Amino acid sequence: MKARIIVTLKTGVLDPQGKAIEAALKSLAIEGIDGVRQGKVFDIEVSATDGAAAEATLRTACEKLLANTVVENYAIEIL
Amino acid sequence: MKARIIVTLKTGVLDPQGKAIEAALKSLAIEGIDGVRQGKVFDIEVSATDGAAAEATLRTACEKLLANTVVENYAIEIL
């Protein structure tokens, strides 16, 4: 079973990497970008065949390793 | 207008970062993960109000900066 986890910074947390990308886009003369925030995506192959079990495994993975829940949110999508 | 760009490695391209995450999950005793591939997500605020114009801007941004199209795919979602 395939799943996708998206980890993004919480609102209000500064994102210098996003700011750098925004500045780089401006310097490339790409206009009309008002803000950029960068996050991470994990495409995961899970061996569980039932959705609830897969989601439980992935939630543990997020809490323990993939996301820093102090400053990041995560979303799990089973595909 | 908000948009999300997801950049992932093309199939067949080695992903040592993904492999490291997979190994780290195993060492944390999180079982049932058969594969991990990491990508990037960009949450972008675009000033264009029409979807086609926004998508054109974002496509240029991907081609010029956000994705290395030799080894990466990108997907643009207007939210």
Automatic annotation (TrEMBL), chains A, B:
InterPro entries: PurS, PurS-like_sf
Compartments, as annotated in UniProt: Cytoplasm
This enzyme's EC code(s): 6.3.5.3
Pathway entry: Purine metabolism; IMP biosynthesis via de novo pathway; 5-amino-1-(5-phospho-D-ribosyl)imidazole from N(2)-formyl-N(1)-(5-phospho-D-ribosyl)glycinamide: step 1/2
One protein family per Pfam: PurS
Keyword check for Nucleotide-binding: yes
PANTHER family registered for this protein in UniProt: PHOSPHORIBOSYLFORMYLGLYCINAMIDINE SYNTHASE SUBUNIT PURS
Protein function: Part of the phosphoribosylformylglycinamidine synthase complex involved in the purines biosynthetic pathway. Catalyzes the ATP-dependent conversion of formylglycinamide ribonucleotide (FGAR) and glutamine to yield formylglycinamidine ribonucleotide (FGAM) and glutamate. The FGAM synthase complex is composed of three subunits. PurQ produces an ammonia molecule by converting glutamine to glutamate. PurL transfers the ammonia molecule to FGAR to form FGAM in an ATP-dependent manner.
Protein name: Phosphoribosylformylglycinamidine synthase subunit PurS
Taxonomic source organism: Methylobacterium longum
Taxonomy of the source species: Bacteria, Pseudomonadati, Pseudomonadota, Alphaproteobacteria, Hyphomicrobiales
